[in-house]
C-alpha cells in the first residue's frame, strides 16, 4: 500500500498534443522527475498527476535540521518524517521548481497550464478522530483535540484553534461581567433621578430637531429613550470598563503562558523559521544563493503615503455616513407619516448602522487588494515576511473601516453642531445631529449592537453557506460522465486513487490567506469586545456565542468542505500578538474617552458636588442629582427672532442665554472630563503593567524543563570529550 501514498495532486485540463500548454506541462513534470519525484497520471474529464517525493529529499531535510547524531541514520529515516512535514516540503519544492522557460508553478497556473495543486484528505485514523470529535455540531461544548489538529493540519492551524479556544474560555468571565453590568443598570439604576426628571418634564419645551415641518416638542416624550440610556450609562459601567482593561491584559498574559506550554510539548523552542526556509531552498536546489534582506527608504515612503491616502479615504467614507444620518434625520422628521417623523432620530441611527455594515463588507474586499498591492511594492523577502506586512496594513485599514463611524458618534456627535440661531450645516442646508438630552451613549450602543449582530449572523451564515453551496455545485458539475471503455482502459478506470483524487478535487479551493482571514475576523471582533465595550456591555456575550459556533463551523469547513490546507510550522501566533497588545492599549484609551466624553457620568458628578442642592447643606434624604436635567439645558431666546412668541425652548448645552457663550459650568465639566481621562488611563495602564509583571509569560515548570534539557544535552556532549584528547 505504500505505493499508493501520494503527497500532492496536480490537476490539468486535457490539452492538445503539441500545444504550448501541453509542452509547458511536460517541461514542469520533467523537472520534478529529475528531482526524484514519482509521478502517476490518471485521465478523466481532467488530467490528474499524483506526485510523491523521493525518500532522499526527507533524509536531506533531517540531516540539515536535526542534531548531528541523527545524521548517521540510514536513508530509511524518512519514514519518521510526519505527514505534515512531508506535505510542507513537497509544497515548497513544487512552488519553487523552475522550468527551462524560467516559469514556476504559480506562473503555469496563471496561464491555465495547471488548474489546481493540493495535498490529499486521506482515509486515515487521525482524520476520522477529527471528524468525530471536532468537525460536527454535536461536540460543540467539548474540548478541542488540539494535538490531533496539529498532526493533521500542522502547528500554525493548531495554534490558531488553541488561541481561539483560550479566547472563548476567557470570554466567559467578560460576558458574565457584562451581564452583571446590564442587570445592575436594569435594576439598581433603572429608577435614576435623571431619567425620572426626563419622564416628569411635561412642561419642558425643547427646540425643534429640524428646520422645516418640525415643531417644538416636550422632553417627557423621550422617557423610554432616557430609561434605556441610564440602563447603560451609570456607575457600574465605569467599574466594568476598568475590569475589561484588566481582562484584556490578563487574557494575553495567560495566553503567553499557555503558548509556552504548547511550544515546549511540541518541541518548538529550538525551531527557527529562517533556518527552515534556507534548508528547504537548499534541498530544492543545492546551488541556491540566499535572497538577502533589502530596505529602500523610497519604497517605504511611497507605501506610507499611499497607506495614509487609503486611511483618508476610509475617514471620508465615515464622513459620508455622517452626512447620510443628517440628511435622513431631516427628511424623516418632515415625513407626513407619524411613525417616521416621531422616531426620525432612532430610524436614522438604525439605518445608518446598517449602511455602515454594508460599507464594512464592501471595503473589506477593497482593503485586501490595496494591502496586497502595498506589500508587493515593498518586495518582502519571504512569504512569512509578506504575511506579516500584509497583516499590519489590513488591520489598520479594517480598524478605520469598522471604527471611524463609531469614533464620530462617540466623540463628535452633538459636540460640533453649534446652537440655535447658529447651527453648523452640511452644504449650508442640513443641520448636524444633536445628542438626546440624556446623553449620546445610546446612539453608540445601537450602532455597535446592529454592526455586531449583523456581522455575527449574516457574515457567519454566508461564510458557511457559500462553501457548502459551492461544494454541492462542484460535485454536480465535476462528476465524470460514464464513457464506454476502450480495450485496456478497464484497469485505469478502477484505479483506487481515482475516486479519492476526484473527491478531493470536488472540494473548495483553499485560499493561501484562509487562516489569515479567520484571525482577522477574530481580531476585529476582539476590538469590538474591548475598545468601546463601556457603551455596549453585551459585546463579550455576543462574541462568546459567536465563537462557540465559529470554532466548529471552521472545523466543518476545513474537514468536509475544503481541500486539505498545506500545513505550516509556527511557534506562536506571530504578529497577531502585537496587534492584540495594541488593541489592549487602545481599549484603555477608548473606554476612558467613552466615560469621560460620551457618557453623562462626569457632568452628573460635577453637578452633584458643585451645583446640586446637596452643596447648600440641604441633604435631608434628597438625591444629589435632583435638578440635573434642568441645569444641563440652556435657554434659547426665541423672542430675538419672533417677538410675539412667549415660549422659551431649551436645548442641551451649557451656554448663557444672553450671548450664547459657554458658562463657567461648561469649563468645570471640561476640566473634570480631562482630569478623569488622565486618572482613568493612568490607573488602568498601571493595573495592566502590574498584571503583566505579576503573571510570568513562561510557567516555572516550562522554564525548568528547558533548563534540564540544556543540562542533559551538555552532559551527554561532555562524555564524548575523551580525557586523552584534552590539551595539556
Summarize the structure.
With 728 residues, the protein is mainly α.
Describe it.
By secondary structure, this protein is mainly α. It is built from 25 helices and 12 strands. α7 runs antiparallel to α10. The longest helix is centred in the middle third of the chain and has 38 residues. About 3% of the residues have low confidence.
Helix content: 55-70%
Oligomeric form of this entry? single chain
**DSSP summary: helix tally:** 25
Global mean pLDDT:
84
By secondary-structure content and strand pairing, the structural class works out as mainly alpha
Q: What strand order characterises the main sheet?
A: 2-3-1-4
How many strands, what sense, and barrel or not for the largest sheet?
Answer: 4 strands, antiparallel
Low-confidence stretches: 68-78, 481-493
Beta-strand percent range: 5-15%
> Could you give the distance between the termini?
59 Å
**Cα shape:** elongated
The whole-angstrom Rg is 32 Å
The total strand number stands at 12
Transmembrane segments: 157-186, 236-255, 302-327, 347-364, 390-413, 523-552, 573-597, 670-695
Membrane topology: Multi-pass membrane protein
Subcellular location: Cell membrane; Membrane
Main location: membrane
Can you tag this structure with a few keywords?
728 residues; mainly alpha; two-stranded antiparallel sheet; 25 helices
Question: How are the SSEs ordered, and which strands pair?
Answer:
Elements: E1 8-12, H1 20-34, E2 38-43, E3 47-52, H2 55-65, H3 83-96, H4 105-110, E4 116-118, H5 125-133, H6 146-153, H7 155-187, H8 193-200, E5 205-206, E6 217-218, H9 223-232, H10 235-265, H11 273-284, H12 297-333, H13 338-342, H14 344-378, H15 383-411, E7 418-419, E8 422-423, E9 425-426, E10 430-431, H16 441-478, H17 490-493, H18 496-506, H19 514-530, H20 539-561, H21 576-598, H22 601-611, H23 628-632, E11 633-635, E12 650-652, H24 664-694, H25 700-720
Antiparallel strand pairs: 1-3, 1-4, 2-3, 5-6, 7-8, 9-10, 11-12
Helix pairs in contact: 2-11, 3-11, 5-6, 6-7, 7-9, 7-10, 7-20, 8-9, 10-21, 10-24, 12-14, 12-15, 14-15, 14-16, 15-19, 15-21, 16-20, 19-20, 19-21, 21-24
Domain Anoctamin transmembrane: 149-706
Pfam family, one: Anoctamin
Organism: Chaetops frenatus
